[in-house]
C-alpha cells in the first residue's frame, strides 16, 4: 500500500491598498452653471460635457466627486476650485 502526502504551503501575499483621495464639489446658490463648468474644465481638466454632467449632479444631489487621485495632485486642483468661489473639499 502506498501513501501520498499532501503538503499545504503557506504563501504570504502583500496587498497594496492605496487610498484614493477625491475632490467633492458641493452645491451652492451663488455660482452659475456656466461658471462651475468653466472652472471644472480649467481646474480638473474635464471635458465640457463631463463638467456639465458634474454640475447637474451637484445641482440635483447636493454634491459630486469631480476628481480622484493622489493627494499631491488634488491639492492644487481643489485650491483652484476654492479660489473660483466654489465649495469643495478633499476627502
TrEMBL record:
Pfam families: ClpS (PF02617). Residues 20-83 form the Adaptor protein ClpS core domain. Keywords: Hydrolase, Protease. One of its GO terms (biological process) is proteolysis. InterPro entries: ClpS_core (IPR003769), Ribosomal_bL12_C/ClpS-like (IPR014719). One of its GO terms (molecular function) is peptidase activity. This is ATP-dependent Clp protease adaptor ClpS. It comes from Pseudofulvibacter geojedonensis.
Amino acid at each position: 500500500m502506498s501513501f501520498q502526502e499532501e503538503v499545504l504551503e503557506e504563501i504570504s501575499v502583500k496587498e497594496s491598498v492605496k487610498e484614493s483621495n477625491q475632490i467633492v464639489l458641493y452645491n451652492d446658490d451663488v455660482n452659475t452653471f456656466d461658471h462651475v463648468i468653466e472652472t471644472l474644465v480649467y481646474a480638473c481638466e474635464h471635458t465640457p460635457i463631463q463638467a456639465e454632467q458634474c454640475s447637474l449632479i451637484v445641482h440635483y444631489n447636493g454634491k459630486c466627486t469631480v476628481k480622484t487621485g493622489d493627494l499631491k495632485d488634488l491639492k492644487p486642483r481643489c485650491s483652484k476650485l476654492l479660489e473660483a468661489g466654489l465649495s469643495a473639499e478633499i476627502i
